[in-house]
């Protein structure tokens, strides 16, 4: 975590939470343009200050996961994972983590959540398969094309999320990271929004074998619909999604009124936002909602989906978040000290995705890293300055989130928590058996060079 302090404390600390209470000390918030220039000396100082983090971090990078191609014009670029990994290694962050090359998920594991006939189609279809009704039925179209190696790609990122969840359940790691996961739109029997297999649902199912209650937090700009739907009737998973909502923005779900059904009523929270939300408002809202979620629901573990399309200048997004603010949400969740599974998700301006997830890896390992990116074969990609915290203001979108509207959302969301009446009691003997007890032994612990 880059911990920097300003020469002077924030002035005029007002009682308005949007003014001062929840901003991080980082000078890289877009809301603090005065800090964006001339910060190199501060960075030098920060680099000499190593924060004390006793968290044991496990990092999962499936072999070859960045080598797949959805298609020339498709915005989802798995190469972003290779570049992220390269920056993580370049910063030397692997020295503070156990790095794993997980195996692919098995077909049986995919079928814990997905329907058999859907997995059968996913496993057998190729780019040369003639079109049939199944393509429509399973929603394989423009957003979700059939590409070479698609099934293995899905098994790779899902295997990593499952291995990471098992690691947390074993108690041998406090935090587990899989940037290739977080594909939150996939449904039980349908591909959606560039997602084919919902690794998040599979990982939460794994966590539920050992943890009576799991909190799912989603900061992708799109609603976490696939995860919400999977646990909509459950009081063992509280899903909380912060996203753009309205004007037919994909996937068009995630209204405040979606709160769960049956036993799961009030165990689903949605924070619908408008274009252009900025650092201060977003981080303030995030903290003021997540803290009571944790103290009220009392989860045994947390899954955090870190979609980077909520950053400013994203190719498909319309928010104004800086990498520092996005990372501040991660730091805040980490600060509760609960077993934490951190996943990727969306993110379509590739260089900023790589910057963001590298920075968040540093936040999670408790490391201070310099603003100057390490030299890699991707140097040209990051421009002449090669900065980690490149200001993302050039395409700044007008903020259409009036303070009063955000406050109304906050009050309505927190109202839902009041119905929860403390954490539900769960009988541990009702948990399903572990179907694959040999997972941890099968992990291939890898310590990359460099
Ligand atoms: Zn997204």
Automatic annotation (TrEMBL):
Transmembrane stretches, start-end: none
Gene3D superfamilies attached to this UniProt entry: Histone deacetylase domain
Binding-site positions, a divalent metal cation: 220, 222, 309
An example Gene Ontology molecular-function term: metal ion binding
UniProt keyword annotations, A-Z: Chromatin regulator, Hydrolase, Metal-binding, Nucleus, Transcription, Transcription regulation
Record EC number: 3.5.1.98
Residue span(s) of domain Histone deacetylase: 74-363
Catalytic activity: N(6)-acetyl-L-lysyl-[histone] + H2O = L-lysyl-[histone] + acetate
Domain of life: Eukaryota
Family note: Belongs to the histone deacetylase family. HD Type 1 subfamily.
Protein name: Histone deacetylase
Source organism (scientific name): Tilletiaria anomala (strain ATCC 24038 / CBS 436.72 / UBC 951)
């Amino acid at each position: 975590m880059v911990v920097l302090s300003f020469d002077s404390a924030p002035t005029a600390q007002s009682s308005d939470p949007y003014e001062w209470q929840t901003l991080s000390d980082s000078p890289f918030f877009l809301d603090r343009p005065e800090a964006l220039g001339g910060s190199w000396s501060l960075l030098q100082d920060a680099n000499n200050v190593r924060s004390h983090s006793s968290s044991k971090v496990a990092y999962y990078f499936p072999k070859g996961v960045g080598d797949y191609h959805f298609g020339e014009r498709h915005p989802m670029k798995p190469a972003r994972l290779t570049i992220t990994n390269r920056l993580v290694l370049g910063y030397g962050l692997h020295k503070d983590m156990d790095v794993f090359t997980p195996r692919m998920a098995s077909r049986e594991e995919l079928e814990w959540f997905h329907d058999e006939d859907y997995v059968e189609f996913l496993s057998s279809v190729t780019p040369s398969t003639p079109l049939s009704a199944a393509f429509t039925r399973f929603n394989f179209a423009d957003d979700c094309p059939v590409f070479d190696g698609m099934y293995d790609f899905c098994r790779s990122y899902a295997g990593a999320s499952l291995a990471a969840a098992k690691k947390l359940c074993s108690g041998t790691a406090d935090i587990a990271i899989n940037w290739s996961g977080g594909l939150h739109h996939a449904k039980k029997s349908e591909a959606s929004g560039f997602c084919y297999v919902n690794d998040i649902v599979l990982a939460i199912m794994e966590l539920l074998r050992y943890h009576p209650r799991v909190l799912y937090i989603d900061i992708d700009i799109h609603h976490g619909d696939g995860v919400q739907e999977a646990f909509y009737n459950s009081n063992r998973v509280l899903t909380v999604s912060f996203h753009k909502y309205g004007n037919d923005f994909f996937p068009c779900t995630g209204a405040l009124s979606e709160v769960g059904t049956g036993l799961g009523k009030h165990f689903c929270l949605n924070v619908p936002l408008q274009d252009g939300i900025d650092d201060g408002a977003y981080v303030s809202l995030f903290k003021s909602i997540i803290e009571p979620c944790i103290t009220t629901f009392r989860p045994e573990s947390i899954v955090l989906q870190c979609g980077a399309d909520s950053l400013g200048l994203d190719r498909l997004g319309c928010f104004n978040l800086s990498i520092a603010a996005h990372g501040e949400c991660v730091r805040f969740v980490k600060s509760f000290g609960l077993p934490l599974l951190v996943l990727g998700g969306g993110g379509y301006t590739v260089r900023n995705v790589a910057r963001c997830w590298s920075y968040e890896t540093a936040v999670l390992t408790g490391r201070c890293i310099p603003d100057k990116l390490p030299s890699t074969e991707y140097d040209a990609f990051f421009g002449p300055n090669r900065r980690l915290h490149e200001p993302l203001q050039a395409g700044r979108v007008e903020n259409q989130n009036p303070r009063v509207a955000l406050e109304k959302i906050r009050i309505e969301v927190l109202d839902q928590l009041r119905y929860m009446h403390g954490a539900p009691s769960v009988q541990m003997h009702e948990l399903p058996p572990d179907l694959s007890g040999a997972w941890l032994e099968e992990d291939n612990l890898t310590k990359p060079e460099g």
